[in-house]
Amino acid sequence: MSAFTTFARNLLNALDTYHTLEDWLSWVDELSTKDYVIIDNFLKGDLYSTVRSFFLSRLSHFAQAGIGALDNHTVHQEIRGDHTYWLERSRDIELSDFWHLLEETMQVFNRYCFLSLSGFEFHFANYPPGGHYARHLDQFQNRNNRMISMIIYLNEGWQKGDGGELEIYHKDESTILVEPLGARCVLFKSADVPHRVVEAHKARFSLTGWLLYRPASLGSLF
Ligand code: OGA
Ligand code: MN
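That is the input. Now the predicted structure with manganese (II) ion docked in place:
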């Protein structure tokens, strides 16, 4: 074990973290080399149930998603068919354990990837049957502060044939299909990884967000 890893281990062990340092370091390593990482059971039992229940309790407040920074742009259903609900840390205190997990996540990236993350923006997303999201990158032309994309799926009993897989494009244009299984998390570099959501045949739930170089708007998220 290198002196650096030992040092890192001591640092994080001193904190009460949700995931172990071993896990974090292996995920960070995979993200740095492959540009993305898929983590099963990222949300454990209690936190997964809390997040999913809160999602269901907000469903009647979802709105048709737009395209562009903070959805300020037009709705194009041929590009994107999901309905979203933007979260706010100060209002959505039901998610406090999740907000803490995000702080841990940002600390890990700042420490081990030498990123300068200082905020995040998250929304719930519901793709109704027939919904999809065409190939895109998560960075906007007029706003490039999205560094890391993070998607956590909330689908119970997803089966082949239900659709709604996340398709990730590699540099050589080969792809992988990621099944949107409950509690699974996908992290990828927002500027570098083209991706799309394959048409869903059943309602498809997720918690999706971005770790930001600077907060989207001071005050609202922190
Ligand atoms: C997005 C997106 C992918 C997914 O919201 O930008 O690409 O798997 N979502 O939900
Ligand atoms: Mn995307």
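The domain at 3-218 is CATH 2.60.120.620 (Jelly Rolls).
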